[in-house]
Amino acid sequence: MPLYRNQWRQMLIEDLLFIRFLDDMERKWVEVFNVLSAGLYPVFYSKSKRYTLRSYASKFTLQGEDLFFEDKKAVKSREEARALFEEFHIAPNGKHLGIGKSRRALCAKYYWFGMTRDIDKWVPECDKCKTRPLALAPIKDNQIVGIGSGSTIVHVIKRLAERVRKENLNVFCVPTSFQTRLLIQDIGLMVIDLNRHLEIDVAIDGADEVDSELNLIKGGCGCLTQEKIVASCAKSFIVIADYRKDSSALGEQWKKGIPVEVIPMAYVPVSRAIQSQFGGSADLRMAVSKAGPVVTDNGNFLLDWRFDQEHNWSAVNTTIKMMPGVVDTGLFINLAERVYFGMEDGTVKIRDKNML
Ligand SMILES: O=C[C@H](O)[C@H](O)[C@H](O)COP(=O)(O)O
C-alpha cells in the first residue's frame, strides 16, 4: 500500500509523540495492532526490525478492536495488566497466590509482553506477601547472629529488626558482606566484629540451591567466603530459601555453576585445573554495570564452574580448595542444620539435618 506524504507525517508524529513514550508492553500491543489492522510499521524501523515485528505479529489475531495471542486476550495497557494481576493474585478464598500460581492463573487467560517478568516482580512487592512473617524462632535475647547476603536476607533483616523493636531484644549482628553491613546499620541493628566475638549463636543466610542432604551452592550474588567463615563459626547455621532452590541433587535447579573465589592472578590456572580434573567449564564472572570482571568484597575474582556430571561434593570441595589461588568455594557441605523453604502456596517446608 503506497503511503502518502500526510500519512507519513501522521505516522511520524504518532511514533514520536505516542509510541515512543509507551512502555515496552504497550508499545508492542500498538505495533502488533497497527501491523494486523493496517499493515503499518513504525517509520523509524529498519527492514530487519520490520521483519521481526511481522513474525511476532503473526502469532496474534485481531478480533474487532481486541488482539488475541492464541486464545489469550492480549492486554493493552499497563493499568489493565496491573488490575488483572491484583484480581488473579488473590484467590477467591482470600489467599495470596505465590509466583507460580499467579503466573499459571493469569497466563491461562491473558497475555502481555513481559508478563512473567512483571508477575515475578509484583508478587514479592505485594504488601501482604512481603510482610508474611519469616521463621526466626531460633533467635533469642543477647544472641550473636551471623547475617548472610543476597536478596532473601533483606527480608530476614527487616523481620529481625521488627522483633528486636517489639520484644526489646539485644541482638548483635555479624555481617557477611558490605551489602549486609549497610543494611544492618541502616535499620538500626547492632553490628559487631568476628574478631571480638568468636562464637556466633546462629547464622542465617540464603542459598542458590539446597540438595536433599542440605548441601548448598552459594555465591550467586558474589558473596561466599565471608558467609562460609561466619557459618562455620556459628553453633547453628540456618538457611532460608524459596521452593525454586529445593532440589534432590546440586545442579538440578541452579544452572549458573558453582562459584569459586580466586585471587585475581590465579583465575586462569585455577579455571584450567578445575576443567581438567572435573570437566565442565569454569568461566570468569563478568560484571554487568562495570567493564571487566566482578570483584568480590575481598578484592578477588569469581569463577563459575558449570559441571556436567554428578560428583562427590565433599571431595570436590576439598580438592578445589587446595588449588593455589583459591580462596573458597560456593559449596557449603555439611554446614546447614536446617533449611526453611517458602513454598508457592505460602506454607513453609522445613528440611532438618536431624531428620535426614
Ligand atoms: O552470593 C550470595 C549468597 O551466597 C546468597 O545467599 C545466595 O546467592 C542467594 O541469594 P538470594 O537470596 O538473592 O537468592
From TrEMBL:
E.C. number: 5.3.1.6
InterPro entries hit by this protein: Integrase_H2C2 (IPR041588), NagB/RpiA_transferase-like (IPR037171), Ribose5P_isomerase_type_A (IPR004788)
Swiss-Prot/TrEMBL keywords: Isomerase
Catalytic activity: aldehydo-D-ribose 5-phosphate = D-ribulose 5-phosphate
UniProt GO cellular component terms: cytoplasm
GO biological process, alphabetically ordered: D-ribose metabolic process; pentose-phosphate shunt, non-oxidative branch
Any one GO MF annotation of this record: ribose-5-phosphate isomerase activity
Recorded metabolic or biological pathway in which this protein acts: Carbohydrate degradation; pentose phosphate pathway; D-ribose 5-phosphate from D-ribulose 5-phosphate (non-oxidative stage): step 1/1
Pfam family, any one: Rib_5-P_isom_A
SUPFAM superfamilies, alphabetized: D-ribose-5-phosphate isomerase (RpiA), lid domain, NagB/RpiA/CoA transferase-like
Residue ranges of domain Integrase zinc-binding in the record: 78-132
Enzyme superclass (EC): isomerase
Family: Belongs to the ribose 5-phosphate isomerase family.
PANTHER family for this protein: RIBOSE-5-PHOSPHATE ISOMERASE
Xref: NCBIfam families: PRK00702.1 (NF001924), rpiA (TIGR00021)
Protein name: ribose-5-phosphate isomerase
